[in-house]
């Protein structure tokens, strides 16, 4: 969860701690809000070809750091939906994003949030799928498909095993749901992929 240069061990520790405590301890909050993490998020988002005016869903927004930069990227005519299932992280995201007028924050499972069909241009997923049980992943992907506009995109960033999720597993879920892989970038510790709604 820290910046790319720090060890995946810290990433794993944070993930375990988050799963154990409903209210994340201050250490986790520190990692998810510290300036290095913010710089990492800013750089990652700056490299994405997201158009101003886009409607983007930040799935599993955590403390909202990525939503903040996504909101800047889409600009005043765009919109970001920041969603998460953790009430305490959503509270932190609300603080983080209080000045972002183009962000809407929602708590709950994606399929409970009643997004309109074909209403979202892009879904951004950063280090979330590996924390979800297999069944929930597929259910979420089917909901992504429903709410994405035609030719809409899903951008995924996930850690690889032993602490993350196998690329093949992700590919299988998205293929089963009928989404087309458009990009795949692998590094030894993580991967990113883009899927398109046909
Ligand atoms: C490792 S954190 C990443 C947070 C954020 N995306 C980031 O990179 O800073 C994983 C997040 O996924 C969220 N999450 C896990 N399962 C989820 C689900 N079914 N729906 C939405 N969010 C979920 C967790 O609550 C947590 O905020």
Structural write-up:
It is a single chain. The protein contains 7 helices and 7 strands; from the N terminus they run H-H-H-E-H-E-H-E-E-H-E-H-E-E. Residues 1-9 have low confidence and may be disordered. By secondary structure, it is α/β, with parallel strands linked by helices. It has helices at residues 8-20, 26-33, 35-46, 65-74, 87-96, 134-147, 167-176; strands spanning 55-59, 79-84, 103-107, 120-126, 148-159, 180-186, 190-196. It has one domain (50-196): Rossmann fold. Helix 3 runs parallel beside helix 4 (65-74). Strand 2 (79-84), helix 5 (87-96) and strand 3 form a beta-alpha-beta unit. The structure holds S-adenosylmethionine. Residues 1, 15, 32, 59-62, 65-66, 83-86, 89, 109, 126-128, 131-132, 136 line the site of S-adenosylmethionine. S-adenosylmethionine binds next to helix 4 and strand 2.
